[in-house]
Design a protein that fits this description.
The protein is mainly alpha-helical. The protein has 5 helices and 3 strands; from the N terminus they run αβααββαα. The protein has a single domain, classed as Winged helix-like DNA-binding domain superfamily/Winged helix DNA-binding domain (Arc Repressor Mutant, subunit A, Orthogonal Bundle).
């Protein structure tokens, strides 16, 4: 049974969307470094590491993702890795963001045709992913 998040699902910024998509693509239990690399790939540009880790902290406080530390004794450098996973609220927020982006792409396509500048919604949607 799906949880009802009506009214409680936060809006995501584009960077948050990229971070959450990266975690989704890599799978639950991934850690910061691969997520950081995937976000750079998705964004198509270099990302500030401080902004990335600050965003992870903020998203965890908002309840969008969970982080659990590994045993530092089992890690090569003796520091714990923080394994990341999306929460049900995070998945719902990303789903809503995707739906909103697709709706915007469709509206843009419909209105740009009226002005003689047709843009296919499927091409716009592919750019978002």
């Amino acid at each position: 049974m799906e949880k009802d998040f009506e009214g409680a699902v936060p809006e995501l910024g584009s960077f948050e969307q990229q971070v959450m998509l990266a975690i989704l693509m890599l799978g639950d239990g991934t850690y910061g470094a691969p997520v950081y690399d995937k976000v750079e790939e998705i964004a198509g540009k270099r990302i500030n590491q401080g902004a990335f880790y600050t965003t992870l902290d903020r998203m965890e406080r908002k309840g969008l993702l969970l982080s659990r530390a590994t045993d530092p004794r089992k890690e090569p450098r003796g520091r714990p890795r923080h394994l990341l996973s999306l929460t049900p609220l995070g998945k719902k927020a990303l789903e809503r963001s995707t739906e909103n982006a697709l709706r915007l792409a469709e509206l843009f396509s419909a209105h740009s045709r009226k002005r003689g500048r047709a843009a296919a919604p499927d091409k716009l949607a592919r750019r978002l992913v």
